[in-house]
Design a protein that fits this description.
- With 449 residues, the protein is α/β, with parallel strands linked by helices.
- The protein has two domains: 8-41 and 192-212 and 292-448, no CATH class; 47-168, OB fold (Dihydrolipoamide Acetyltransferase, E2P) (Beta Barrel).
- The protein has eleven helices and 22 strands.
- It has a ten-stranded mixed beta sheet. A seven-stranded mixed beta sheet has the order 4-3-2-5-6-7-8, covered by helices on one side. The protein has a three-stranded parallel beta sheet with strand order 1-19-17, with no helix packed on it.
- Strand 6 (117-124), helix 4 (130-145) and strand 7 (149-156) form a beta-alpha-beta unit.
- It is globular.
């Protein structure tokens, strides 16, 4: 397997292997029988980054083998969008024989949308001057003459030159409504637009009967917050990166949404504010006590949640959580540590193709719902940021459920209030003992896989 060849002929075999592996990993929690949903096997990545290799008069994109660290020439990249592949050829042709553009160029980043907009960033080990700007402007105009809707950006140490703008606007059809998302260069965006649409529609479905307000941590450009706004009275979201906050504010206005509030602060800071540990000027005019958040959505960085935020998250009746590793999820799901949990057959939307690893997500619930047991997938590629998502879909509510104390890890029959499809795991914890002392009071957390 190379960056220029996706082994699509191995798709079915690799999928079957990964499904079996996931089932084995989750065996202690649930007898999961997944249902597979297909998605495109190529041209799914909307962004990509390449180093540039200067070989005499030649110039080409390269990637590095993860095992041997050797260089691999990349003239086409079938994992990326068709537009990125078109731009890769056009950029090499436009830069190769132009000294001002080629000299000390070491990397090119591509960001594209389903609406065929693109930003191309050229990274240099030199100071960018007026000669570079003129050459870049000429290249941009030549690309546009070919029908490519592209913006160019030059980057060097402490330098960023935007010829026009540093953003593009994505338009996604989500549950019958077009959502507009401004995507800023060098900021996080969902790399797979097709999977992003599925995630947004799933999140809408699983929260369609929600009550109260929604809290989202690490909201980025408002990807989930804005789509979910229609299912909640109000949405309160936090994000630390200034460009992402600015994009989220634009997206709120562009989508004519009036019930979303974005706060620029880290999750750790928000936890301190919620717990009354500190006061923040950024929260002036925002009364956190007025929000009745019964649902929390968390898509944290790879470092996960800090311990205090973990504790805060556990207090919410409904938890939607995106994580990045199935091994981690099975050992310590989502970095959330509820005192008691049950497991039912769950819906897993996964990307178990082309790679032995990838990002995953999962949804946690308190004792309020069951799940549909479906498995979804989209492509992942080991050589370049494999991406995927585990997630859940609710079916019906469960009322007046009580968790009782028992031996840790012992698998028991479903108790009163649970769906017939639900399996419950018990553990000896203070919360479980408290539950046993308060019959009839809903408590504990059920995880649905």
């Amino acid at each position: 397997m190379t960056p220029e060849h996706l082994p699509t002929e191995q798709y079915e075999a690799q999928l079957a292997e990964k499904v079996a592996r996931l089932q084995s990993m989750m065996a202690p929690f649930s007898g999961l029988v997944p249902e597979v949903f297909r998605s495109p096997v190529s041209h799914y990545r909307m962004r990509a980054e390449f180093r540039l290799w200067h070989d005499g008069d030649d110039l080409y994109h390269i990637m590095f083998d993860q095992q041997t660290k050797s260089r691999i020439r990349v003239d086409t990249f079938p994992a990326a969008s068709q537009l990125i592949n078109t731009l890769m050829k056009a950029m090499i042709a436009g830069v190769r024989d132009n000294h001002a553009l080629r000299h000390k160029l070491f990397q090119i980043d591509y960001l594209t949308t389903l609406s065929n907009q693109a930003i191309v960033s050229l990274l240099y080990h030199k100071k960018l001057d007026e000669e570079w700007r003129e050459a870049a402007t000429a290249l941009r105009d030549a690309l546009r003459a070919q029908g490519l809707n592209v913006h160019l950006i030059g980057r060097a140490t402490k330098t960023k030159i935007e010829l026009d703008q540093d953003y593009i606007d994505e338009r996604l059809p989500v549950a019958g409504k077009e959502m507009i998302y401004r995507q800023v260069e060098n900021s996080f965006t969902q790399p797979n637009a097709a999977m992003n649409i599925q995630m947004l529609e799933w999140a809408l479905e699983v929260t369609k009967d929600s009550k109260g307000d929604l809290l989202e941590l690490y909201c980025g450009n408002g990807n989930f917050s804005l789509a979910l706004a229609r299912n909640f009275n109000r949405v309160l979201a936090t994000e630390i990166a200034k460009p992402s906050v600015a994009a989220a504010q634009y997206n709120i206005a562009a989508n004519h949404i009036d019930n979303v509030q974005i706060i620029r602060m880290a999750a750790e800071e928000f936890t301190q504010a919620m717990n009354g540990v500190r006061e923040f000027n950024r929260l002036q005019g925002i009364d956190l006590k007025r929000y009745q958040c019964e649902t929390i959505f968390v898509d944290p960085p790879r470092s996960g949640l800090d311990s205090e935020t973990e504790k805060m998250v556990q207090a919410y009746p409904r938890i939607l959580y995106i994580s990045c590793n199935p091994e981690t999820l099975c050992k310590k799901p989502g970095n959330v540590k509820p005192d008691a949990h049950g497991v039912s057959p769950g819906a897993i939307r996964s990307v178990p193709v082309y790679a032995s690893y990838g990002m995953r997500g999962i949804t946690h619930r308190k004792v309020k719902c069951t799940s549909d047991g479906r498995l979804y997938r989209h492509p992942a590629f080991a050589h370049y940021s494999a991406v995927s998502c585990l997630r859940l879909r609710s079916l019906k509510p469960i009322q007046n459920t009580r968790i009782t104390d028992s031996t840790a890890g012992k698998k028991l029959e479903p108790i009163s209030g649970y769906s017939a499809r639900t399996t419950v795991l018990y553990s000896k914890t203070p919360r479980m003992k408290q539950a046993a002392a308060n019959p009839g009071k809903p408590t504990g957390i059920v995880r649905f896989w």
